[in-house]
Amino acid sequence: MGILSEEILSGDAVLRVDVESAGEMEHVLEDMHFINYRLASVSVRSEVKKAKADVIWDRAASEKGIRYVNDQLLLTGNWEQGELNKIMVAMMGSRMDREGIHPFHSSSVRFKDRTILFLGGENNHGKSMSQIEGCRRGGLLISTETTVTDDEGIVISGSKNVYVGPRAKGTERADLPSQDEGVRKFFDKEPEYKPFEEKAPVDLVIMPGMDGHFATQVIPMKEFEREYQTFHSVMNYLGLNQLLSPGGLVMPIIDSDELRVRRGDFVRRFAQDKPYYMVRAKNPGLLWDEVENVLAKEGLV
Predict the structure, then answer these.
(1) Domains of the chain: which residue ranges?
(2) CB–CB of 233/267 below 8 Å?
(3) Each residue of 12-29: pLDDT tens digit?
């Protein structure tokens, strides 16, 4: 029986995972496509520095199970790589929260010296196509799926993978069309993606709506909707609606009242000092025409 201990890192947030296994394991996550797509820049180190494990996995146990007890996630039995990716995204998101690091389900670009955040809300509303069109117009790529800010709302990192890549077992989605198909529908070819790596505040938030049929519409978002959609975006990482394993196993609650209060205060502060707009259009070009109009209207260009 061997024990593997390693740490998963994102910025200042560290997640320690201890695994007890009958066989050899090189890493907890053999396939990291999904966690890197979901949480921007994630790395792994074998030199364990954290005194207490955040996740303890008894892989040799005969029965599959998942519990959250005394601030530790306890796993037993055999878990698929896709399921593990989702579990580690949730646990990593929780640990990022504790460090005052906030992942947003969003894409973002740096355009004419301004940072524009496209809130994801639910899947398939157009954040990825908006990001691609922004880069096609000369914008720099900040993030594709997840934008990470500090507690003051300054963007500190972002995912750079335009596509999720191969979906390991446990992350399959038959309901989502191929991202290649969406790109082919709207673009002759993809632009060159030039990254923007500097830290900068968000200047404008856009909630895109795009399905190939929408009539163009531009609506300033009021206080409740700004905060609601922002909260939806930052809550996307805690896994309660993401993990359902065969046998009815679900992701346990890993949140706390204290963290929820702090998260709510962050959302309030983030949403109050910048313009938010809902922009609907049938394609990325029309949507971005309106984004440029909004930039001019708000005196951001």
Answers:
(1) 2-98, 102-297
(2) no
(3) 899 999 999 866 778 888
